């Protein structure tokens, strides 16, 4: 089925290219034929003009020649005799007073068409320089206009195909995420049951407490995956407390070589928040910071409020990010790790900006000194 779709796509592209090529070729042929016909008309016009000038025709023929001369209202031309005197037809009258402009027009007309010479007894009496008519000039740009239209049409088709493909992929990823959440749910329910049994077996409280934390964490992860592809519900939450919970959970399970610090001047800052998704974002930023420091360094999470905006900074002392990469690190698939899909930061950006109407960016970074990632969210009362 997939191969048939690909074959159909390539056949469609090939047919489109053939059609465009035929249209362009026919347009070019028509253009050349039109120029040839105009050349024939100009030769007739030159003959009529020459006959009228000689004045050796009878009245009827002379009138016919004059009618031929009068009928040409479109072809711009300059008639120059052997003394260098010239006469302009179908051209701006002002040009008649500007010899420099006339000679420039003669040069242009020579490039467009071969001049026609009026001879008598082998001697050139007049030379007719003529340019392309307005119709020919319009036809000259027609192939370019056609190519532009085809390019725009192709672009629209390409972007439509790409957006459709991305939509299908997003739907697939959302379905896989929900299925993962469903699959985790079954053993998770079993683990909760085993934890209750262990409580009755007089297992040490510290051990049970940590196991309970890990099970809660699995439940949180399950809820995160179940929310992918759907609009999350936001509730009034204290972002200081929400950040602390994720911070302390990761601190207790990270290398002791990383010095964790948490700073805030405010006890409570309320925002509209989805706890599971926000926790996922902070977790991604902290884990990325630890990876950037290769498991050793100083990590600071800092919150402060300025007017109606709360800023969350995650600062590390890692390898840093080049300025040219500040925006690219949030693109799906972008990663500098040997392992990983490059989805953590792009997912964080979607959670912050699409779901919470906030902003996430690289506030500052220096190579081999560290990076500061900033999240900004609007506060509520």
Descriptive labels:
single chain, 381 residues, alpha+beta, Beta-Lactamase, Heat Shock Protein 90, 2 domains, five-stranded mixed beta sheet, four-stranded antiparallel beta sheet, 11 strands, 56% helix, elongated
3D structure, described in words:
- The chain has 8 helices and 11 strands.
- A hairpin with a 2-residue loop joins strand 3 and strand 4 (123-130).
- The protein folds into 2 domains: 2-132, Beta-Lactamase (2-Layer Sandwich), CATH 3.30.450; 233-378, 2-Layer Sandwich (Heat Shock Protein 90), CATH 3.30.565.
- The longest helix is centred in the middle third of the chain and has 67 residues, at 134-200.
- The two termini are 56 Å apart.
- By secondary structure, it is α+β, with helices and mostly antiparallel strands.
- The chain has helices at 2-54, 59-71, 99-112, 134-200, 205-227, 239-252, 275-292, 344-355, and strands at residues 77-81, 86-89, 116-120, 123-130, 235-238, 258-264, 270-273, 297-306, 309-316, 359-366, 370-378.
